[in-house]
Structure formats: structure tokens, C-alpha cells
User: Fold this.
Amino acid sequence: MRLVFVTAATGVVMVVVIFELLRRRQLREKYGALWLVVALAVLPLAFFPTLLDGFTSVLGIASGLSLFLFLSVVFLLLVSVHLSWESSRLEEETRCLSEEIALLRAEVAEFKESRERVNAP
Amino acid sequence: MTATNERLLTILPAWNEAESITAVIKEIQRELPEVDILVVDDCSRDTTAAVARAAGAKVLRLPYNLGVGGARRLGYRYAAEHHYDIAVQMDADGQHDPRYVRDMVDALATADLVIGARFAGEGAYRVSGPRQWAMKLLSVALSAIAGTRLTDTTSGFRACRGELIEFYSRNFPVEYLGDTVDTIVQTRRSGYLISQIPVSMRPRQGGTPSASPAKSMVYLLRSGLALLLALVRR
Assistant:
């Protein structure tokens, strides 16, 4: 029974933290929505850890929690791959921006120089 | 090349090369007076940008360090935006002798990309151990892909023209070794012709070469990975 208390508390804290981050606009909606759905799906399991047992016995898996752990590892793996992809994309974008800045600065310097040359004599 | 009025840009990516860059720029100006020189300062901590500007080169300064591939891509982008006919990329440490540029430009008559290659008869450059295996591996594999004999695939001394400048300004690989290995695969796949001419390279005028056995081993592994990725990339 104490185990249920721990898992339930964890589930509730997770939902609250994500909701709060979304409310303060710290998370982009697409990530926020994803994590909120995950948290809400996990919440009933946090209160009743044996909930999946009936389902897993059909699949031939010993306990509902093993299925849950397996799925969560797969899910987290996918999420981290997605984040690597996202950061590669962002890196490419900032790279383009820094190129743009270098080109613009050189152009501005050129303009300044030519204006000074006109004004000088 | 002498009779035409094609516009030529030399691209020198530079990172903390304040000591040697003036001599390199002056030599290019002396050997190739009609050529524009672009130094891409990859966010050096020393005075590379100011020194290069004082020596008479055009200078682009990146706001943060992008690595040599990133600096080269910016160079090609500049060449494309300013409608240069030919772009020659060289190292800023004085390894590459500008006297070969004319030969390379002549060779562009029959190819889109010309690589200035060591080990092709000229000069006395020698390496050994894992670094040599890496170079051998790359040279054999990339020669097969390019359909022509390439003896020095990691050479940063290259000339290209027209369409390929435009292509590089968008697609120049920016990852480690990508700027040397990936470019050859990508260039060939996009239907451009590659060739090489022999050059001799000089010892660097500044900076330190990386040559410990451990580093060479890492280099071998990374070249293998770079090659593999280049081959399976779309």
C-alpha cells in the first residue's frame, strides 16, 4: 500500500509541474501537450499499479509493471532521439544566422567606409 | 586563365592565425595580383581579422566558432552572392603555395572541382602509422567513387567554378572531415567532375600539427565513420 502512495504522489507531481510550465509559457505547446498526455495516462496507473495485470496476462507478460517499464524505456529512447534531431536542426539554423550576420557586418563596414570616403574631402 | 577576365576569389578560413596570415595574403597578392582574397575569421581570440584587413583582404568574422567546414561554407556563400566565376579554398597557415593556383584554374577547363594533391609526385610530404592507413583508405575508396585517381582526399587546397560554388554555398558539409571527405562523394553524386593536380605543400608557418599516435588512431576511426556516413547519405 505504501508503494501506491509513492507512485501516486510522483504521478501527481509530474502533472502539476508540466501544467505549471505550460501555464508560464516555458514549454512549447507541442512538447507540453505530449508530456501532459503522458502524465495523464500514467496517473491512473500510479494509483492502481495492478491495473495492467489483466491485459498483460493475455499477452503472456508476467506483470503489468514489466510491460509498463518496457514501454517507458522505448518511449524515452524515442524522445531522446527526437531531441537530438531537434538540436541538430537548431544548430543548422543558428549556423545560417551566424553566416548571415557575418555577411551583413561586412556589408555594413563597407558602406560606412564608402560614406566616409565621400564625406572626407 | 591569363587572357580571360574571370573573377577569382581565394577563400582562407582562419582561426587564430594572426602571426602567419599577413605573409600568406601578401604572397597571394604578389603571385596573383588580379585575385580577390577573402579571409573568414572563425571567431579567433587573437587579432586575425584586423591583421587580415590591414593586409588588404576582405574579412568576414563569424560571431562564434563554426569549425573549418563552416567557415569554408560561408566563403562559398560569399563567392556565390558576389558572383565570382572561380573559388579557390586554401589554408591560412601558409601550407598551400599560391603559385599552383594558375595550374588548378587551367585544370578547371575539364573538371568542376580540382584538388591540389600531395603524394602525386611533387614535394616530400610523408606520414606513417594510423594516419597513413586512414589516408590510404580514404584515397582508395574515394578514387573509386570519383572515377578518377585521388591521392590526397583530405587536401584543403581546392578550386571550383560556377555552379559548384552555388552548390557549396548551400551544401558544404560542416562536420569534422566532412569538408574533405563528404564533399568529394557529394560533388560526384551531384554529377560534377573531379580531378587533381600534383602540388607540394610547405611546412606550416604558424599553428601546430596534430600527430600523436592516439590522435592518429582517432583520426582513422573518424575518417571511416565520415566515409560510411557520406556513402549512405541521401
In short: Residues 1-49 of chain A form one domain. The two ends of chain A are 90 Å apart (CA to CA).
